[in-house]
Amino acid sequence: MSAYSELSAHFTRTAALGNGIGILQWDSDTMMPKGAAETRAESLALLRVLHHGMVTDPRIGDWLAGASGEDLGPWEQANVREIERQYTVQTALPADLVDAASRASSKCEMAWRKARAEADFPALLPYLEEVLRLQREMGQAKGEKLGLSTYDALLNDYEPGGRSARIDALFDDLAQFLPAFTEQVLEVQSRRPATPPLSGPFAVEAQRALGVEMMRTVGFDFDRGRLDVSTHPFCGGADNDVRITTRYDEANFSKALMGVLHETGHALYEQGRPRDYIFQPVGQARSMSVHESQSLLMEMQACRSREFLTFAAPRMRAAFNGAGPAWEAEALWRSYTRVERGFIRVDADEVTYPAHVILRYRLEKALIGDEMKLSDLPGAWAEGMKTLLGVVPPDDRLGCLQDIHWPSGGWGYFPTYTLGAMTAAQLFDAACKADPSILPGIARGDFAPLLAWLRTNVHSQGSLLETDALLTRATGRPLDASVFKAHLVRRYGGEMEQHQAA
After folding, report:
1. Which of 308, 357, 371, 429 has a 20 to 30 A CA-CA distance from 450?
2. How far apart are CA 256 and CA 262, in angstroms?
3. Which candidate, 91, 129, 88, places its Cα nearest to that of 108?
4. By C-alpha distance, which of 457, 447, 448 is closest to 427?
């Protein structure tokens, strides 16, 4: 076998093990009985060590050297690039550190579930301190190998090539724009007719049925995926077996519905990845900002549009036997685009959501950099919420305990959410300009034109291109925050002038 063939076969086996880990993790978050937590943690820790051993196999270095001299096509060349990137990062980590981090995260996740329910941050603190210590060690080890700061080394896992210096500039710009813009949007809303409330309760069974119908509408393939329930909605699973979850509230069906559509955007990306390279690094999603762009494009750009709600309104009425003006498409649009300050990130509207992310990004960067104590997190969180959003959470359940990311070891992940929102706006803008049938199609419940554009320009590209190159090829320019701000002004600004987004 050629050196490249050896690499390809090895990473096909690695992907098979990763798929097993993915399904076990999904089960841990959805259906596993509490009494199995310790056993499952042991199993996952061992499998992750084995997986780490496979991606750091010493033979990979020799195969990479051999493949560099072979006549490879563009996809194979890109695959070698991605394997080398992964190999360089993973060989920086000793196996015992990977094992310790996995065990600490599993324990912390279980402690987080209890602490969140009881709004008890002190109960979580010792577990989270251990996770933070190990994440800092991992970031330092990777940073030394890559020539990066500790935080940038962790960020690089989710956003290859991403740097905090660029994010600082983007987020500082948004942090200056958003508070005043939010005030203006609230003023515009106050002059509109009151939106009539939708009266529940909304049965969970009916919510699930509506969610499944909308998943089919936008293009989800139920032969290669499923919908379940979890404490924190997510998209996971395995190649060709994409698992998404939501959580239901009988007083408000829109939370679960929009959550389902959000996670379906992630799932469509996973289901659209290049089939010929699905088990290879080059066939994986480009970055988390691109992945998040797919969920936000579907939820925010497409499914909170007037066009989509024109299509969805009669189906919502039928699902819950609704009647009256509250169920009209225009009233639903006002409801689905309503802006209000709140405590919970996953429930936030499109305008205030970036402020939630900016807060988490600044806090995690300070914690990783040892610039603040973890015990000071609740107070720093409350102060940041007050500055960026004008609200202060009444307890830690609605504050620093609301997300699973840090307990599960996801440090360096948060900025990709808002990078994804900016990318989503730019991609949707380009798609609609390239194919004028997209918006009229959405109004009829026909997402085929939009999905076809995404399949061609994003999903099927896998990791063939670097993030900036992918976006430039799809939209004609690299990431440009002005497109996102202009979108917010158009949708939420009412009579405000476009120049306010400049």
Report:
1. 357
2. 10
3. 129
4. 457
- Was 307 annotated as part of a binding site? no
- Three-state DSSP at 235 gives strand
Q: Which of 84-98, 217-231, 429-443 shows the lowest per-residue confidence on average (mean pLDDT)?
A: 84-98
Return all residues near 65 (Cβ < 8 A) that are at least 6 apart. Answer: 3
37 burial level (CB within 10 Å; 0-12, 13-18, 19+): middle
121 touches 400 (CB < 8 A): yes
Q: Is the pLDDT of residue 498 over 50?
A: no
Instruction: Name the residue with tokens 């009881």.
Output: 118
51 is in an annotated binding site: no
Q: What are phi and psi of 225, to 5 degrees?
A: 180, 175
User: What integer is the mean pLDDT of 2-28?
Assistant: 97
Spell out the SS3 assignment of 153-190. Answer: HHHHHHCCCCCHHHHHHHHHHHHHHHHHHHHHHHHHHH
Position of tokens 């970055």? Answer: 287
Q: Which amino acid is at 302?
A: A
- Who contacts 500 (Cβ-Cβ below 8 Å, separation ≥6)? 181, 184, 489, 493
pLDDT at 499: 37
188 in Cβ contact with 492 (< 8 Å): yes
* Contact call for residues 122 and 377 (beta carbons, < 8 A): no
Cα–Cα dist 392/386, whole Å = 5
Check if the beta carbon of residue 455 is closer than 8 Å to that of residue 474.
no
266 is in an annotated binding site: yes
State phi, psi for 102 to the nearest 5 degrees.
-65, -45
Q: Active-site positions?
A: 263
